[in-house]
Amino acid sequence: MEVGIFATESEVADAAAEHLFAVLAAADNKVLGVATGSTPLPLYQRMRAAHAEGKFSLEDFKAFALDEYVGIDPEHPERYRNVLRTELVGDDKTGLKDENLFTPEGNAPDPAVAADEYDAKIKEHGPIALQILGIGADGHIGFNEPGISLVCRTHTDVLTEQTRKDNMRFFDNDIEKVPAGCVTQGLGTIMDATEVLLIATGANKADAVKELVEGGVSALWPASILQMHPKATVLVDEAAAAKLKLTDFYRGRWEATHK
Ligand code: GLP
Known about the structure:
By secondary structure, the protein is an alpha/beta fold. Helix content is 34%, strand content 16%. It contains nine helices and ten strands. Helix 1 crosses helix 2. The longest helix is centred in the N-terminal third of the chain and has 17 residues. It is globular and about 50 Å long. The two termini are 18 Å apart. The site of 2-amino-2-deoxy-6-O-phosphono-alpha-D-glucopyranose has 14 residues, from helix 5.
């Protein structure tokens, strides 16, 4: 696992964009894994800016989302398909075509069947060349909450109360309006990506980042499974890095390998 520590959220986003542009330019398989939450938004802004300058395009790419709410109004701006459309789809964004954006069907008649089909579709078009990830304060990635199987595939689940609380800022600050269920790529599905890029910013992520990078691999902190990934990059700001032990080593190695 490579760890990059930066002074500000903006520097994290610059480094994430640089990494993503390089990985996608060299990718054999033109498939990107995209994430929601607020953390990746500055990265998406940089992708749009680079597209506007003619330096970057997802025109030839397929994109697979990590997760989706179950039972959310299809028109709701926080439906993850809608978030990703707003951020990435179209020539005025990153060039990604709507028909090439795949998101789990949270409103399918049987979301569990739809989850299996989604996993099969990722296998069909995969491997995902680069999976972008955020992290929850409780160490979840996608919606793989603590206690989840470390090898699970795309599945439906219920959200923890903490995650519904964390996400209620997007739902009029009313926890009752946050959907209770989700469909998410499983940890096994995420681990199939050729590379993963996890971004974490802010002090409320410091515990999760410590467990992700230096803790034991454990279902208690689902993101810790990424220690078993051969090509994982973790980019954090100082606040999110505050509880890491080996920061001097990470900084030195990053400088030595990113000249
Ligand atoms: C949500 C998403 C995750 C995201 C996490 C953190 O629950 N399902 O993919 O990483 O929360 O969100 P944020 O980046 O807004 O802190």
